[in-house]
């Protein structure tokens, strides 16, 4: 045999022997992209179609033909073997590119990049259910059982620290910072089963649907999840609740922050401050001098200069003597009358009565 032919045969045999090892270690299937995948959309899990199904979360896959990501909707899939669980695939940053690590079935959940896919896949392990006695037990706090009659259920509260950004890849700029635990590392070396034929049909159906491309739905796929694989119509189809921003959209926010800076320059044009100079015109305060006219209330004493009859009327109980003396004071009062603008003086008190001076007045004003 030709030595060259012999060496090629040996190399081919070695590669065939290494293929199972690669699948067990969850090695990347060879898809590498230099663009980060979009963030995970938010959707509601459709109800489980029946007992024995396990949830496989949705993810972004890459199509070299169209050079774009497309969304593979989450769906319920029957386990290929009793006791097997699904470990989702994930994108991981390595050597300047994003590599896809394919998901697999196995007796334990392995490492899936720490990506929070939701509904039991919070980044590590699976909180949606477990196998016991050949039956799946579902956590109603995570799994949407719906109206399906399933008796093997339980309730366990799961606290999910969901990232606001819904990052869909591990490592790199902005990626999830997570490393496999000891249990996840040992699970990677267990016997695995690749995606079933039903799952592969589901991926092909998503790839051929234009509305699931990231460039078409802007990270908001109209078919985010399905009740059964490759079934993209009917009551079991669930759309995304709202679009999540992608990593590319984050760059768009930077020019918006830089744009307002030139607008800040026109602020020096706010020269209305010189018009504030008229404030010195407030010196009209000297005009407040009319306050000196306040003595006007002091004119009240001029009212006291009333006829003799009016002055005497408010004093009916007074004795006669004050009235006789008041006549003398009335003669003195006309003197201050020609001085209306003079400062008012207090009204002089009448002197004490002298009854012996005018007794005739006493008889005249007798009541």
Structure report:
This protein is an alpha+beta fold. The protein has a domain at 14-46 and 54-124 and 164-249. It is 24% helix and 16% strand. The chain has helices at residues 3-24, 182-187, 197-207, 214-217, 247-258, 260-264, 300-304, 308-312, 320-332, 359-364, and strands at residues 32-33, 42-43, 53-56, 59-63, 68-72, 74-78, 85-87, 90-94, 97-101, 104-106, 129-132, 135-139, 153-154, 169-170, 225-226, 240-242. The strands form 6 sheets. The protein has a 4-stranded mixed beta sheet, with no helix packed on it. It has a 3-stranded mixed beta sheet with strand order 3-6-15, with no helix packed on it. The radius of gyration is 51 Å and the shape is globular.
Kindly summarize this structure in a few lines.
24% of the residues lie in helices and 16% in strands. It is of the alpha+beta class.
Adjacency order of strands in the biggest sheet: 1-9-8-14
Ends apart, CA distance between termini? 168 Å
Shape: globular
Task: List the uncertain runs.
Answer: 1-28, 243-269, 292-296, 300-313, 320-332, 355-367
Strand elements, count: 16
| Radius of gyration (Å) | 51 Å
Oligomer: single chain
Largest sheet: number of strands, sense, barrel closure: 4 strands, mixed
Structural class: alpha+beta
Percent helix: 10-25%
Average of pLDDT:
73
Q: Give the helix tally.
A: 10
Order of helices and strands: HEEEEEEEEEEEEEEHHHEEHHHHHH
Q: Strand-residue fraction? A: 15-25%
